[in-house]
Amino acid sequence: MIVVSAASGAFGRLVIDRLLDRCPVGRVTAAVRDPGGAADLAARGVTVRPGDYDAPQTLRTAFEGADRLLLISSPELDPSRRAAQHRAAVDAALDAGVGSIVYTSFLGADTQADGVTAAHHATERTLTASGLPHTLLRHPFYSEAFINPGLRDAVASGELTDGTGGRGINTALRSDLAEAAARVLTEDGHLGRAYDFTGDLWTYDQLADTLSRLYGRPVVRRDRSGRAPGAQGWLEEQVRGGALERQTGDLRRVLGHPATTLDEAVAAVLAPHLSPAPPS
Ligand SMILES: NC(=O)c1ccc[n+]([C@@H]2O[C@H](COP(=O)([O-])OP(=O)(O)OC[C@H]3O[C@@H](n4cnc5c(N)ncnc54)[C@H](OP(=O)(O)O)[C@@H]3O)[C@@H](O)[C@H]2O)c1
């Protein structure tokens, strides 16, 4: 049996979808903080069990009988609390006799013990210390932080504003990362490995070009004056400093095919909101 924790989130739901393409529904269990919010999964025949990172006693029962567990990292922002939640999950997995763990880590967590990777770094060490066979899926930032329905404003105004300084961005769509996770959970040969997943590099100039071509209206990229508010400003600063330019072949290798292209990603995200240009 494959148990997916935090299965009610955006990534978890995509993993469940991809697992159901690859194995019988009776093999898939969703562990969720609030089973009431996962009635749709239960309606599809997925076993739903309570599993709260803050209530370790629920985790042992949630993981019972799993030969493979996908431990999806918690959205908790405080690194010590987040690392403690993950430690509780690993302890519960040991206690429940889980066969192996696949953990959604983050790029750089192997070497960076602070900042956004602090809890991931600690969890990778917890997994090593546990002695449990495991696989690390180090994710990049999700493309959806940049490629989202907000882009329809750029198509409408003809201007795409950003603060990335034209640097490359190695994000990947949740859907590609979910397919990779489903493959790792259902194939042999992944235990003991650490994958550094990156999408193919793209830039805001390319994004403006994609929007222009797909929607048949000129979209021009402009530099933002000042910093974007909140998390977007921080993220753009990371891009401008070149922090998102690392490239590996791991995602393509695990998928067995190239990741979704920029054109495909934009078309998929904006399809419900905009009509594409007629073919020329
Ligand atoms: N790579 C990136 O760019 C990126 C960006 C954002 C987040 N992340 C990380 O990737 C994970 C998955 O991303 P996502 O987009 O699927 O996030 P999401 O949609 O916010 O889902 C988060 C999931 O965590 C669950 N959760 C929250 N607290 C929990 C607890 N105490 N015990 C058990 N489950 C708990 C939520 O359950 P409820 O449904 O009950 O709320 C939800 O299922 C996030 O949790 C975060 O660690 C990565």
From TrEMBL:
It holds the Pfam family NAD_binding_10. Residues 7-187 form the NAD(P)-binding domain. InterPro entries: NAD(P)-bd_dom, NAD(P)-bd_dom_sf, NmrA-type_oxidoreductase. This is NAD(P)-dependent oxidoreductase. It comes from Streptomyces phaeofaciens.
